[in-house]
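Retro notes (design track)

What went well: tokenization of the new backbones is finally stable.
What didn't: we kept losing track of which sequence belonged to which structure.
Fix going forward: every design gets posted as structure first, then sequence, in one message. First example under the new rule, 252 residues:
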């Protein structure tokens, strides 16, 4: 198991039991997700004892040279067979995810998500996260960690443009921002403790709940009530303005 988790057969450096468990779990969840992502052969044994081993090179295999040896036991081995896996742009190999990816797909997907996300007043991460998990063979830990800094680009541009049209309340924004700092420390720790299925389950229910709330806000009853509340608020503002003008006139 140590040689499989290590980088192409290199054993991990000696660590205590707690650290070894922590690092090995990170590698299994982030790099491979499952042991079937390591190169394996399908062996067909004939009645006379001969066999044929077929190796299927999976999509996204790390670039580089590979030496394959067929072994019956420690004394009977075949001559090594070498093959080289080459990739070039727009393919990019991500060592911490254990797979390669065509960058054009995520680029255009993110472009669409960023436009819609900033329109909704967010960075778009809540949409990009599940879409990347659904469309690409990426671990949830890598998706969550990668989407976090990339959302900064859309958020920074969005903040600049919203500030130009005077749509930002900085006091409220800073208050909410401090709570986000605390949440940003807790979130990554929780990601390490849950599996991909648990992650999808929780995230899915959060999206369903948000969708249900937004759908409810489009219902006629909610719209009518909201209009009534807006009318009451407008009346309060009108009376407050009249009182302020009266007070100002009395002072002068």
């Amino acid at each position: 198991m140590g040689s499989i988790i290590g980088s192409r057969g290199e054993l991990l450096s000696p660590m205590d039991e707690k650290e070894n468990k922590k690092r090995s779990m990170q590698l299994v969840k982030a790099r491979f997700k499952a042991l079937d992502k390591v190169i394996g052969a399908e062996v067909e044994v004939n009645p006379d004892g001969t066999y044929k081993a077929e190796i299927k090179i999976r999509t996204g295999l790390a670039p580089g040279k590979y030496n394959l040896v067929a072994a019956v036991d420690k004394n009977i081995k075949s001559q090594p067979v070498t093959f080289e896996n080459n990739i070039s742009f727009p393919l990019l190999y991500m060592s911490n995810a254990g797979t390669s990816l065509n960058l054009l797909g995520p680029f255009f997907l993110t472009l669409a998500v960023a436009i819609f996300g900033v329109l909704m007043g967010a960075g778009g991460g809540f949409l990009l996260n599940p879409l990347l998990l659904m469309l690409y063979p990426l671990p949830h830990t890598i998706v969550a960690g990668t989407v976090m800094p990339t959302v900064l680009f859309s958020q920074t541009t969005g903040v600049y443009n919203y500030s130009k049209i005077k749509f930002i309340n900085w006091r409220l924004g800073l208050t909410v921002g401090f709570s986000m700092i605390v949440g940003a420390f807790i979130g990554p720790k929780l990601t390490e403790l849950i599996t991909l299925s648990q992650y999808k389950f929780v995230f899915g229910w959060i999206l369903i709940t948000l969708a249900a709330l937004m759908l409810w806000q489009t219902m006629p009853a909610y719209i009518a009530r909201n209009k009534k509340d807006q009318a009451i608020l407008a009346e309060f503002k009108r009376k407050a303005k009249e009182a302020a003008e009266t007070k100002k006139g009395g002072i002068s």
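Added context from the reviewer: The mean pLDDT is 76.
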